[in-house]
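Please decode residue identities from the backbone states below.
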């Protein structure tokens, strides 16, 4: 548990999966990245889906939802998913039911971040968190629902279309406040509508990076995923966010890092940025 002013912050698991390391590290040669995260014989590495539960006296906010429960056994096998649906288990351990979540902020709409946003019961899709308002970047929604393969080919409509049908969708823009103390920042880069989430209260803060910084190994300037639609933008905004976190001594969440889900960042004279665990 982390206290950020009047917000209690808990890291909850949206799942774990196996992922191709070459995709995770993009142009970085294997001879370099394998020194920090060794892969198995199939070039796969284990990754987390670290989500954030932020609670104040009046609000219960979930950031990202992991893989959810809708994937078929074959899809689960192909992604190397670990068993079960840990998000609901972790929430239950904290004494939180799906009905108690007021807002769900989605960094973007890829399956490993929004898959748990909806559930299927008796063949019918519905929001997993029935009382929540789901917060999605306007550009992200436009691209994901465009029907153009170049823009929407990486999305699964069942993860998010039911949110609009249920009247639970809130589209937001850059620097929009979701609730007092929690703000979204449209970063672009990974997707055009990708957004980070900033929690600030009483002089302290926490920054949810989403896939701008998927693991703490991505602290390096040129380490980005091959999924990034705008690689230059990812590099630019990563530096901006890292500088901001370091200068304010804010914690950051590395959403796919199993070993270091949360850290601080320091400025470094030679490496530019350094992870403080």
């Amino acid at each position: 548990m982390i206290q950020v002013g009047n917000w209690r912050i808990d890291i909850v698991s949206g799942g774990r999966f196996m992922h191709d390391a070459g995709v995770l590290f993009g142009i970085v040669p294997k001879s370099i990245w394998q020194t920090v995260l060794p892969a198995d014989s199939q070039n796969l590495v284990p990754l987390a889906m670290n989500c954030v539960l932020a609670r104040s006296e009046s609000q219960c906010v979930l950031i990202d939802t992991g893989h959810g429960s809708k994937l078929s056994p074959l899809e689960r096998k192909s992604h190397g998913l670990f068993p079960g649906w840990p998000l609901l288990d972790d929430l239950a351990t904290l004494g939180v039911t799906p009905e108690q979540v007021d807002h769900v902020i989605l960094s973007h709409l890829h399956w490993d971040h929004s898959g748990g946003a909806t559930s299927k019961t008796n063949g019918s899709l519905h929001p997993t968190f029935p009382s929540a308002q789901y917060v999605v970047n306007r550009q992200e929604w436009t691209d994901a629902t465009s029907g153009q393969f170049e823009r929407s080919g990486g999305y699964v409509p069942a993860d998010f279309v039911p949110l609009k049908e249920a009247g639970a969708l809130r589209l937001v823009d850059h620097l929009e406040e979701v609730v007092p103390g929690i703000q979204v920042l449209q970063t672009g880069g990974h997707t055009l509508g990708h957004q980070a989430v900033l929690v600030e209260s009483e002089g302290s803060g926490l920054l949810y990076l989403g896939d701008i910084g998927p693991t703490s190994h991505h602290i390096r300037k040129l380490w980005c995923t091959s999924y990034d639609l705008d690689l230059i933008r990812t590099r630019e905004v990563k530096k901006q966010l890292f500088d901001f976190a370091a200068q304010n001594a804010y914690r950051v969440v590395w959403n796919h890092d199993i070993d270091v889900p949360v850290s601080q960042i320091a400025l470094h004279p030679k490496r530019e940025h350094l992870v403080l665990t």
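Observation: The longest strand covers residues 7-20.
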